[in-house]
Structures are given as C-alpha cells and as structure tokens.
Amino acid sequence: MDALWLFGDQLGPHFHSVDEHAERDVLMIESRRVFRRRRYHRQKLHLVLSGMRHLADELGDRVTYLQTETYREALAEYGKPVVVFEPTSHAAEMFVAALHEEGLVSEILPTPMFALPRAEFADWAAERGTFRMETFYREQRKRFDVLMDGADPVSGKWNLDAENQSPPPKGRLTLGVEEPWWPTEDAIDDEVRADLDSWELDTVGVDGPRVFAVTASEASEALSHFIDYRLDDFGKYEDAVMADDWTMSHSLLSVPLNLGLLQPLDVAHAAEDAHRDGTPLASVEGFVRQILGWREYVWHLYWHMGPEYLERNKLEAHEPLPDWLLELDGDAVVAKCLSSTVDGVRDRGWVHHIPRLMILGNFALQHAWDPRALTEWFATAFVDGFAWVMPVNVIGMSQHADGGVIATKPYASGGAYLNRMTDYCGTCEFNPKKRLGDDACPFTAGYWAFVHRHREMLALNHRTARQVSSMNRLNDLEQVLEQERQREVY
C-alpha cells in the first residue's frame, strides 16, 4: 500500500487515520523554498510548521519526515510512489497532476476537508448556471440535515442575519464573555521558533505566543470551549468591533479548520447540539452559516471560477498597496479603526471578518488598490489565509472586481457605518459625520469620492442608485473630491 503524502493543511485524523488510510505510512515534507516564495506573516509560518511537526510527533514511526529545499528533492529521496489528497490551490493541483503523470504520485483522492465534494458541487452548479450563496446555503442545510425540522428549517426561517447585527454594547470596553481557549506552547514550538529565527526569512508581522490550535486535540478543545462558553453571545455581536476586545465572541477556529484539523460537519453538528441544549438559534444559525455556507461556498467557487478569476478587475483599480499596509505599520495612519486593524494583523495575523471587509476592504475599495495584489496580501499576511480562501473574499466580496458575480453591490460605506458598528470613532481624530475639513473622516469623504468615480455603474444598480442621487445633491462635492485627491493623512 503506497504511503500517504500529507501537505501542511491536511493535518486532521480524517486525512490519515480513517478507513484504509489508517494503515498507510505517511510522508511529510518541509520544503524550504515554499517558505521563501512569498512574504508570509511570521506567525503563519510558525502555525504551519508547528502543526506539521506536532503531527509527525503524534504519528511516530509511521511518518517519514523530510526537510529539503524542494518537494521534488524529498520525493526523490523517498524513492517510492505516494498517494495524495486533492491539494488546496490551482498551482498545487497542477504540480500534483504533473507528478501523477510522472508516476511519483500513484493516486489523487478527494479531499475530506469540506462537507461537499468538489464533483458534487460541479454537478449542482452546472444545473443552475447562476446562483447565490443563500441558495447554496439552504441546499447545504437540506443535504446534510443540519438545523432542519423535516423539510423545513428549524423555526421556519433559513437565515437570522437580521439578528446578528447589533452594535457593540455601550459603556463597555469588552463584551465580557468567557475568554477563548488558549494553547500551551511546548518544546516543538520552541524548536519551530528557533528554526525560523535561524533561517532569516523575509516575513511580516511580529513573532508572538501561539494563540491558535495546531493539533487535532487542541482543535477539539477549542471547539468545545467555544460551544460551551462563547457561542451563546456570538450571534448578536457577530458584526460588531471593539477596540479593546479583538476576540469578542468569535470562535478562533478558522486556523484549525484551514489546517484541516476539524471536519466542518463535526463543527456544524456541535453547534446544532448546542441549540438543542438551549443556545440561542440566532447564534447557532449565524455560526453554521459561516461554516457550512460561506466557507464551503468560497472553497467551491475557487475551483468553479478557475485561476483566471484572479485577473478580474471590473472597477479598473490599479493603485499599488501602500507601504504602511505592506509593512503593517499602524502608526503611519491616523484613523483609529484603520490603525488598530493594521496593528492587529501585525501582532497576530488575524482580525475578524468585519475589520477585514468593512475597514481594510472598504478602504482599499475606496482607494482603488489593485485587487490581485490585495488578494495576495490577505493570503500571506493572515494566519488563516490560503490560496483558496482569498479570491472570492477579496476579488468578489470585498473589491467588487468581478462586477457583481459574488455580491450584488460593492461593500463601500462611510464613517456612519463604522461609528455604529465599532467603538473607534469616539477617540479618533477624525469625525465620522464630516466629509470636508481637517477632521473629515477619510471613510466618509472617501465614500463620496468612490461613488463619484463609479457613478455610472452605481446608477444602473437598483441597490446603489439612491447613493448616486444623494451624491448629486451634495453642495460641496467638488471640494470633497479635491480634498480627497490631495489627502496625504488617513
């Protein structure tokens, strides 16, 4: 029986310890070239290496663990054909296909990393031609019988998103929920940290204590802790942001999920069980929507759209990413929300979905940053970012560069949204209510500059036509546009 070659995001027992795979030897390869290829966040490299080395330690003599410059060198050293699961990027898929043709890979197996197999999604999509995430999500609920009451959704509603949009509680610095589960570093983490220091790689961000699960047992603990102590409060404040509470009630499970340590159906069923035990449905449904809905949708659309999707740039945005973003220098910007978010990426390689979409993504959209470069930045600067994760999230959802394939309107907003959904504005030098003047909020003024730049397109969209009409009624529009053309301080 050929050995199983596991990549660094295929670390869970459902890859190596079920069915016939439990009988296979395992090959794992650290390719130094992979770490040098891009400018990754330091903590991301730590998480991947720590996860790989912890699994090798767990599997013991069953594993051959090779450290080489390239994958090919390791495969040549190993000297026998191997079996692999479908990899998680177009480039890796092409590489594995070439190895298969050469006989170095004997078989390519469907990945168990997602609930719905790729072939089934392809058939489902082919029958429809066009579809939306909500349609896919409902089909997922039916297909896997999650939060269902026979043929109907529990409570009679598919989506409780309207109950997931409360602003942060006033008069509080934190949400006040139980802290997340935190891992305890060990000798393997010490070894990883020493190796990364000695390799002198060009990375971004700072080194720091490991705050995400990298083993199956850790991931199971993190999931259980979230379900037991934090899921209750997740739904209501899912879209809120608090300066002094970066975790709020989020699960912090994106890293172990994207390292292949948890099966999404297991995660969804754990949340479903919690609802039966009394956890509010709005929290459970909102979480399940992230796991079985959006995450699976993003994965399948990565393959459905193909590598050419990265080239889409419908809004003709070509501005280079600024140095303060590339270097994660939050001190170089003044806006409290922007500075704090950049600092969060610097310090831990992670902020939750609203800072990503409505602060970083919104600012990038307003300033016409190149969407492909932004996609690459998100994939390397975030510890849960991988090639499959970011194209739909950035090209489609965040930057509207696909012209509306993923989202029916651009996710652009002014300071009013940030003032409602975050607690940054009260201590910021800029005023979210002002679009003109030294203290004019760059998001508020930038929003009108964005609407003006794309007024013809927005006027044709029934969801954004009103904003164009509102812009046309501004008596200081030309002054605002000139101010934003000359603005140097954000």
From TrEMBL:
Gene3D superfamilies noted in UniProt: 1.25.40.80, Deoxyribodipyrimidine photolyase-related, DNA Cyclobutane Dipyrimidine Photolyase, subunit A, domain 3, HUPs
Pfam families the UniProt entry points to: DPRP
Protein name: Unannotated protein
Organism this protein belongs to: freshwater metagenome
